């Protein structure tokens, strides 16, 4: 059996293009003499379709597209992810499904058993789980067709399985001698190496059957799918691995398999770098934009954002805007200019002093007797936002927000100010990791001016302001944030890790109090195990650990 | 058996205050000789606690609070909603639970069976369903203790039940002769009269047992719980109904019940009015604010928002700000002044012309050769946002956004402009309903100037601009929006309702294309069956019905 893993990048709800792409991959697999071509989870609709799944017309169009694809399947067999109707008289209206197609006919339909409903996943919201699981005969094999989460519940691999049943065990006990898994498994740093690959090797060795793992690739809103589709043989050896963060068609002969290969060794920062570039490219193009505009402060966050944008979209599609105020240092302006020149992007200088002074006059009566404070600081950030949004409205640029995860966590950012934009590219990248990214971007030559990396970070919204006036050092902050936000540890536990109680309480209080800002934040690209956004849903009005 | 229905308003995560309130209601029920006092779903934590449920410290504090409450239960019995640990070795870590407490001891714990995971509900994200359901003896009764959704699956009442099992049927078959339901059931217009009451009457008649329904009251973020706790006797007659949108302790003697009563007859607009007032009050106070600031344009949306705010918070806590530009008509300014005077609120006039002209100069080079357009229009809205946010930052006012649901649906609003604020009070109120609200507010005397109600709506961002230049008449728009957003009907179906195809397609395209704005919108108060926000989750990057 020659099996083709079709690792494709779909757009949610673009049924025509999605079907065309699937058909063209079918053709391509045929031309390489594959017997079977396998597409990712929900390949027809794109993943995640979210509440479009509630719209009957969306389900209809997906079925129409599947029919069109089915008619295209001749001289090869195909497994295609789609949304199936639930024909029973109770339960959710649809199943997350995979069709096994042969000779222009759907031979069998396989429903997902385990429906992830945690973090960014909402599958119980939409799907009814499988009622029946059964393998299907193909050539000399009995294929166990499973969908994403179905392989994520092995009770030997996981210390505490989330579900009572294990569909893989079930498929094997019904005679499956190859497990095929169609996935849309989003990227998080180290997930591929430390979890997915290890788990698949474990499972292949446990059951002594090959595992064919086909993952989606590309970005959809906050999620980036890393591809990295795999074939593990019955001895638990990795024998094929598709591209990371790129479409790929990988054909593997199961009778004459390649020898064992080493998994591609990317460092964590390399994978984050690739994820951000892929996520940005797809967000911009799938939203119908071409160019992005970025406010350049001379600081490291905007520099990293701009450098990533240039790698992702090309320098011609990136516009930098310097918006100095009376509090901007000449050094910062110089750094932003140098960066723009290093990147070869167009940059504009639009000072905000006049607008700021006009507002101060406009508000003179209201602000009488008060001193320069947070209102005046935020105003500067908001003027900059207005300028960027004006350019966006005038020229259809997408504004990229430049804030990092550490700021967003503690609310060290201005709502409707520096938080404004269509995509907050590095909003899941903690500040310490922003520095790592900067060094990685500079690995061959200096793109981000060294000065932006080494100078003490400052918002430059009043004289002599530095981040560390109001925040602990970023390595401390980021360690506490990781413990609280990503690892969900309690205050006591974090204190026992060696941090000062007062600092820990203050940080957690800030995180809990600033949910209102994050609720109105632009979407970001998830790169860690727990990003703010759709995967972390917190009340705004509450009183938990706020004092 | 004298049973007390304790319809209380909790704050999420405020364990000390929540426990104190529960204890004080226990005392109060005792003083009225109640044998049993029943509290709403998750009374200990507040509902919905969302992802705080993932934090072990949150679960611990909830159990500590339950212990404290348990020690307080003497001379009466109590049923108290809390979060219980799941002791099994698989599945979600917690159960949505109710403790039956007697003599300072937890006699039994009852877990929720049916976990709503649709619209605003995410319960499969957190909770493991009940493994066992069993009733409990109390005095001469066998109590069937159920939690919210558990009563919402009767296969005779619902055309298509969502779940395979019916816990009420199960409890009855195990001997329950009273059904107690502890709920946190959010308000939506007509839900109480048209669904909840009818369903409870149906169920009581079907099983010939009384139903005791205890609902939470008050606002938590976008959700308002309407209370309206009920007792239905075994003949299916309503014999007691607690207050709407207010805390209440209602004691009912099940042996000497009151005669049948009529349900309180509120009109839909009256209930929406109450919901908005309650929701605003709780959002402001639970977020720790006191005063709100509102931009007054002279139009109907800001007038209704201000009038509701005055009813909710008192006129001293509402500040109006008029921000006229060169495009503001004298009529609009006059209307806003009259409104402020009618409401007796402080109002300020802060013209935006200077700021607008300064921006135009600042952007002169960039905008050279372009004509006045959407960028210039949005800029005005954003200047107003900057002014309101500056006042908010300076004086700790919460900014109320004034946009309605129709605008938000089609994107007829400015991101970081009129969309800015802590709460978008009427963002789930369609424009036609805003008019109804205005007339309702004016029912006794003219509060909202008649002129604001009758003049053609205009954003006044350029000369002679009217909403109807770019949108169909609001009655048409709202009907199409209701069909698409609330009733999830397809294009063909909506066209068959009698609307022009071109208009239907254009509206749906706008709704689908403007998700990016709504993603960054302030939370609103849900009053319809489907609000934008946490109950409607759509992709931003997609291509479904966008052309």
Description:
2 copies of one chain form a homodimer. With 547 residues, the first copy, chain A, is of the alpha/beta class. Chain A has 2 domains: 2-258, Carbon-nitrogen hydrolase (Nitrilase/N-carbamoyl-D-aminoacid amidohydrolase, 4-Layer Sandwich); 273-467 and 514-519, Rossmann fold (3-Layer(aba) Sandwich), CATH 3.40.50. The first copy, chain A, is 38% helix and 17% strand. Chain A has helices spanning 15-31, 56-72, 123-126, 167-173, 191-207, 268-286, 300-313, 330-343, 353-362, 364-367, 374-395, 405-410, 431-441, 450-454, 467-470, 474-486, 491-496, 501-513, 515-519; strands at 2-7, 36-38, 77-85, 94-102, 105-111, 136-138, 141-147, 178-183, 211-215, 217-220, 223-226, 230-232, 238-241, 248-253, 292-295, 318-322, 346-349, 398-401, 423-424. In chain A, helix 6 crosses helix 13 (431-441). Chains A and B meet through helix 2, helix 6, helix 9 and helix 11 of A and helix 2, helix 6, helix 9 and helix 11 of B.
CATH topology of the largest domain in chain A: Nitrilase/N-carbamoyl-D-aminoacid amidohydrolase
Report, as a whole number of angstroms, the end-to-end distance of chain A: 63 Å
CATH architecture of the largest domain in chain A: 4-Layer Sandwich
Strand content of chain A: 15-25%
Helix content range of the residues of chain A, please? 25-40%
Top-tier CATH class of the largest domain in chain A:
Alpha Beta
Number of helices of chain A: 19
At a glance:
The structure is a homodimer of 547-residue chains. By secondary structure, chain A is an alpha/beta fold.
């Amino acid at each position: 059996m020659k099996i083709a893993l079709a690792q494709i990048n779909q757009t949610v709800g673009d049924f025509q293009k999605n079907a065309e792409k699937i058909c063209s991959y079918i053709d391509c697999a045929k031309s390489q003499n594959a017997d079977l071509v396998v597409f990712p989870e929900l390949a027809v609709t794109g993943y995640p379709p979210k509440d479009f799944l509630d719209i009957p017309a969306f389900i209809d169009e997906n079925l129409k597209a599947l029919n069109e694809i089915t008619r295209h399947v001749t001289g090869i067999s195909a497994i295609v992810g789609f949304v199936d109707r639930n024909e029973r008289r109770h339960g959710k209206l649809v199943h997350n499904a995979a069709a096994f197609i042969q000779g222009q006919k759907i031979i069998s339909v396989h429903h997902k058993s385990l429906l992830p409903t945690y973090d960014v996943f909402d599958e119980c919201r939409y799907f009814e789980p499988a009622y029946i699981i059964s393998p299907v005969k193909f050539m000399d094999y009995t294929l166990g067709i499973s969908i994403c989460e179905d392989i994520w519940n092995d009770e030997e691999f996981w210390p505490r399985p989330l579900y009572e049943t294990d569909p893989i065990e079930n498929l094997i006990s019904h005679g499956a001698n190859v497990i095929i898994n169609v996935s849309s498994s989003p990227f998080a740093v180290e997930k591929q190496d430390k979890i997915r690959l290890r788990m698949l090797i474990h499972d292949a060795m446990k059951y002594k059957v090959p595992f064919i793992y086909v993952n989606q690739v590309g970005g959809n809103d906050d999620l980036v799918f890393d591809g990295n589709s795999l074939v593990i043989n019955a001895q638990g050896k990795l024998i094929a691995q598709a591209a990371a963060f790129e479409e790929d068609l990988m054909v593997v002969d199961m009778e004459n398999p390649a020898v064992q290969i080493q998994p591609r060794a990317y460092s964590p920062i390399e994978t984050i770098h690739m994820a951000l570039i892929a996520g940005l490219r797809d967000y911009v193009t799938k939203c119908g934009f071409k160019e992005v505009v970025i406010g350049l402060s001379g600081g490291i966050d905007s520099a990293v954002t701009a450098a990533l944008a240039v790698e992702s979209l090309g320098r011609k599609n990136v516009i930098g805007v310097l918006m100095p105020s009376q509090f901007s240092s000449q050094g910062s302006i110089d750094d932003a200019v140098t960066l723009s020149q290093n990147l070869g992007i167009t940059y504009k200088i639009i000072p905000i002093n006049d607008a700021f002074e006009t507002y101060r006059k406009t508000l003179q009566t209201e602000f009488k007797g008060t001193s320069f404070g947070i209102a005046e600081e935020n105003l500067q950030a908001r003027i900059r936002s207005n300028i960027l949004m004006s350019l966006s409205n005038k020229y259809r640029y997408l504004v990229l927000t430049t804030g990092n995860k550490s700021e967003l966590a503690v609310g060290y950012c201005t709502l409707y100010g520096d938080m404004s934009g269509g995509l907050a590219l590095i909003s899941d990248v903690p500040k310490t990791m922003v520095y790592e990214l900067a060094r990685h971007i500079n690995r061959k030559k200096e793109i981000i001016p060294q000065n932006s990396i080494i100078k003490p970070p400052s918002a430059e919204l009043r004289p002599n302001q530095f981040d560390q006036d109001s925040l602990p050092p970023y390595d401390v902050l980021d360690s506490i944030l990781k413990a609280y936000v990503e690892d969900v540890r309690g205050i006591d536990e974090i204190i026992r890790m060696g941090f000062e109680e007062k600092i820990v309480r203050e940080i957690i209080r800030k995180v809990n109090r600033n949910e209102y800002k994050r609720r109105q934040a632009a979407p970001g690209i998830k790169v860690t195990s727990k990003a703010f956004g759709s995967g972390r849903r917190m009340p705004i009005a509450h009183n938990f650990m706020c004092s």
